[in-house]
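Incident log, structure service

09:12 report received: a user says their structure output differs between two submissions of the same chain.
09:20 pulled the input from the user's history:
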Amino acid sequence: MRSTGVVLTVLFMAASTMCVAQEASSKLEEIEWTWEVRPVHADATLPNVLLLGDSITRAYFPEVKKQLDGVANVYLMASSTSVGDPRLGAQIAEFAKSQGVQFAVVHFNNGMHGWAYSEQEYKAAFPAFVAAIRAIAPQAALIWTTTTPVKKDTEKDAPAPGPTNARVMARNAIAAELVKPEGIAIDDQHGLMLKHTDLHQDNVHFSEEGAAIEGKQAAGLIRGLLLKAQRLKSRLSHCSAVPPQNRHRIYRCLNSL
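09:34 re-ran on a clean worker, output below:
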């Protein structure tokens, strides 16, 4: 297994102090962070895969990397920045620019942070989130990943807004409504982990065993899309080899894709 380089940026900030410096629509949490991982020695002969998410994605990233060893170079951008925060698109663009590679698959989630944003704000900002991903990977196959269930709902009188299962499900429904018409594949991690709620290690995150279960499912879907792309490329190559004068054969070949 190849070694991995880690770029870790953790910014501890008081939301009340930073709100002055941020745009009015940036509703910051007490702790804001970004965690980036890339292969130290990426194999130029393999496709590149990006996992884009939060600390839950970060937890199952090692299992995805393990499952796709020798199949793809796997990158990670995990962040607390939520859909609805105007910083998110710029952060994604900056990450992609710093890596300087083309991604064949982007497996993405955003939904467990930013509870100060209403579901209406989440829905309004979600298309821009998808557009930011398409901007950095215009040829990539996309996989939207549903947000996983929490062990216990945040109390209504909590000092700061937090996750509840009703809000998680509402955000998942919003995302599904927006990604399905675009033909984006869905990794239903929510449905998967509803079967493993006993593996919560805290209110939000899962144990190593749970993270491995998540990673195996994610890797399986990614592998499937990579194989599909490989077969399509091979078929297109075959079609292009048909002599131009055999136009009818070219048409039949392309229609068989």
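09:41 both user submissions now match this output. Likely a transient worker issue. Closing.
09:42 reviewer note: Residues 4-255 form a domain with the Rossmann fold fold (CATH 3.40.50.1110). The first strand starts at residue 4 and ends at 12.
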